[in-house]
Sequence to fold (191 residues):
Amino acid sequence: GGNIGMTMIEPSDKVGAHVEATGGSDYMARGFVRMNSGLLSTGTKFYVSVSETRADKWRGEGDISRQHIDFNLKQQVQDQSSISASVQYNYAENYSYRAVTKNQWQTSGRYFDWDNTYDPNNPANYYKFRRNPFNNAIAQITGRFQINDNLRLSVQPYFWYGYGLGSSQVVLSETKFLNKATGTTTARRAA
Fold:
């Protein structure tokens, strides 16, 4: 059978913070902050971390962004037993890449992608119709219990939620519609 599991870094026994910043090509920027509570007198310790990443696509118009939050709490119950709870939240948004053939790559290279201007005669190729937002959340509780010297019980129920789009579009043959990508109302005659 299969195995579904998630491993997160354990909260630190020491109070502290960790901060990172990264930059790169295509206007890539990433920031990360983690705050650790340290071990409290109750035997509890936890952390919260937040990160954000953004970059332009390396080919074509559009960008890629992601915001992420982690929370992890651990409570020691006995010497060898503990209960942990964690929540992760993710929001990502990107514009898809257009599939490219060898001939298209040889002709246009990294510049071959979706059209960067709207063409009412060929609306399906407009890059703003290739936006792909997605968010998900995962919550879990992990119990690790030492029953005796030779037996340990681990229980890990979880909940996963995800919502988002694929990067596709539908072209309707209506006589008038609002184009949310361009903010214009377009009138077309039915063929």
